[in-house]
Design brief:
This protein has one domain: Ubiquitin-like (UB roll) (Roll), CATH 3.10.20. By secondary structure, it is mainly beta. It has one helix and five strands; from the N terminus they run E-E-H-E-E-E. It has one helix spanning 18-24; strands spanning 2-5, 8-11, 32-36, 39-41, 56-61. Strands 2-1-5-3-4 form a five-stranded mixed sheet, with no helix packed on it.
């Protein structure tokens, strides 16, 4: 199925979760914020939030600094 992540089209397997997407993007170990179809996805449901064809996601990694 096809989704859009940070304005880029991406094919992912049917039934993929937000967590699986983050793993695929190699950012599953970093603090991130995920917006799905203009709604924030709680970190608590990354493992159970199943993506559907046409979802539009914004994934933002948090960067520390000073």
């Amino acid at each position: 199925m096809t989704i859009i992540v940070n304005s880029e089209t991406m094919d992912v397997p049917e039934g993929s979760t937000v967590r699986q997407l983050l793993t695929r993007l190699n950012i599953d170990k970093r603090p991130v914020a995920v917006e799905r179809n203009k709604s924030i996805v709680s970190h608590r449901i990354f493992d159970t939030a199943i993506l559907v064809n046409g979802d539009v996601l914004e994934v933002v990694t948090l960067v520390g600094g000073g």
